[in-house]
Write a structure and sequence with these properties.
The structure is a homodimer. With about 325 residues, chain A is of the alpha/beta class. Chain A has helices at about 15-25, 45-50, 65-75, 95-105, 120-125, 140-150, 165-185, 190-210, 215-220, 220-230, 235-245, 250-260, 265-280, 285-295, 300-305; strands at about 10, 40-45, 55-60, 80-85, 115, 130-135, 155-160. The first copy, chain A, starts with 8 loop residues before the first strand and ends in an 8-residue tail after the last helix.
């Protein structure tokens, strides 16, 4: 997106082999049909990548944030907007990812730090299909810088003032996507999936609000939007992982089948720990946790969910 | 559902042929694989159907509510809970359907009148697949009566105090389902669909709130839940209708292809009129209205949507 707008992009990876493939072919192995357009320089040298930048865009994994930003700090603390695009919660601290970046790089970078979240498949974005996402930074000025930098005629970036909310939405939806995949693997039908998505968003919203988010943020592009895409599309990793689990694959075999990182299995642990600490009932997250880590039979989990006492819908 | 719980059910239809088919086969022509179980008596005699009932369940169409309740009134005003299950807005008045029932049968029935809404495919419900829906009546006592009467081990009915909200959610989602069908017909991808669902729910919520609903209701089973199911499943009539329109079918030909009532095309008119009256921006509803009734090219509509100025997400 940025290169297509004429920005000079430097892409850093630690993987020497990947770097040479990218340099030679300009094709990301995970997106075999897309040749990157525009001015993109590939490097494995972080110091080179950080030199003279106007914006730093992070795209590693939730677990990678802390070690990568430690490396960045050792070289220089950037004095430009820092945009996080990974979706997850740090497992050890339960923190949202921009908070981890601030913790590592120091309070001085808070006002320039933000996140991009919401429903957009890389392949569709590159093909120029209409996509709408959301951005939020700790400071509104940085939010608008991120929106203006990324927005194109086919990629709309809505500003939002609730950075905590958009990060929880993007992270926690992956747990519900696993639940929907499990339901699909059990052939429970469309009605069950719609109920899982809705009640899933309900419990996500409760946890996010207990952590300082605004309720309405979770009903937006990061949260509901993400959920709509991840829980319906057979190409979502978390959804596919859930489906494999329901079909009887052990955890390790399911992960080997997917090949890429399934963030939801880490987010699930962090979310379930947070939920217990804050006393927020999260029956769907609990069920996913029990199925993935406790070996609970998925049918038994469905039965437990269906037998819970029914409360007023919004409570 | 009710017959499976042991209730004595009387099913009334004006269609003599359908009544005789149902009596003979116990199979609804639209659900050819399902033989109805339990005590269900079929009749074309409304007086017989109304005699000695403990609950009246309406399942006609939005346009049928007023004439059918006029017939009911001419015979007797029921003194039991009245549950509306149609999803729509009355086109002439813009009213929610329980309001139309109260208008026809009189204020004396308000406290006993309610609605059932949310994501449940008839076929899945009958097969006993897990389903969660929502009920609300003007009086909380009636709400609980509806929940208790309908809830089974596989069909969960959540109570909600906001009858206006659940009715708007169930009705307006059909317009967004048409929009998603159009996007699918144009092969716009998963990201575009997720954005349409999210921004669609955003505008639905604004209209519903302007009419006295609570914002959170629309994020629940009627609203978000309905939307998740209707906009993802190829079996949804409104979604299929939108897809046909995008593929170039004229309005009439698309309706002939679907065969059943496509409530969204009526709701779209009512919603768009209400939106203009109340000055609520509803760009997606407006686009569907223009495509279906104004002959606008769907690609042109997408371009207009993508060129709108970007505002703060929750405004």
């Amino acid at each position: 997106v940025l290169a297509s707008k004429g920005h000079e992009v430097v892409s850093w990876t630690t993987n020497e082999h990947l770097a040479s493939v990218l340099k030679r072919t300009r094709i990301q192995p995970f997106l075999p049909n897309q040749v990157s357009q525009g001015n993109i320089h590939i490097t494995t040298n972080l110091a080179e990548a950080l030199s003279g930048i106007d914006m730093l865009v992070e795209s590693v994994t939730a677990a990678g944030i802390r070690p990568v930003f430690e490396q960045v700090k050792a070289l220089r603390v950037p004095d430009c907007p820092i945009v996080l695009t990974s979706k997850g919660i740090e497992q050890s601290s339960g923190s949202i990812l921009p908070e981890v970046a601030v913790e590592v790089l120091g309070e001085s970078i808070r006002d320039q730090t933000g996140a991009l979240s919401g429903p957009g498949y890389a392949e569709e974005v590159i093909r120029g299909l209409p996509t709408s996402v959301v951005a939020s930074a700790y400071d509104p000025k940085a939010t608008m810088q991120i929106c203006d930098t990324f927005t194109t005629q086919t990629f709309r970036v809505y500003p939002n003032t609730d950075i905590t909310g958009i990060c929880y939405g993007g992270a926690l939806k992956n747990v519900i996507a696993i639940a929907c995949g499990i339901a699909d693997g059990l052939s429970l039908g469309w009605s069950a999936r719609a109920a899982l998505m809705t009640r899933g968003l309900h419990e996500i919203r409760k946890l996010a609000v207990a952590n300082g988010s605004k309720a309405e943020t979770l009903g937006g592009l990061s949260g509901m939007g993400d959920l709509c895409m991840t829980c319906s599309s057979p190409t979502s990793r978390n959804f596919r992982f859930g489906k494999l689990i329901a079909q009887g694959y052990p955890l390790k075999a399911a992960l080997e089948e997917i090949k890429m990182v399934v963030e939801g299995i880490y987010t699930c642990v962090a979310a379930w720990e947070l939920a217990q600490k804050l006393d927020v009932p999260m029956p769907i997250t609990e069920a996913v946790h029990e199925i993935v880590y406790g070996g609970m039979n998925p049918y038994a989990a469905v039965e437990i969910l269906m037998k819970r006492p029914i409360k007023e819908e919004n409570q």
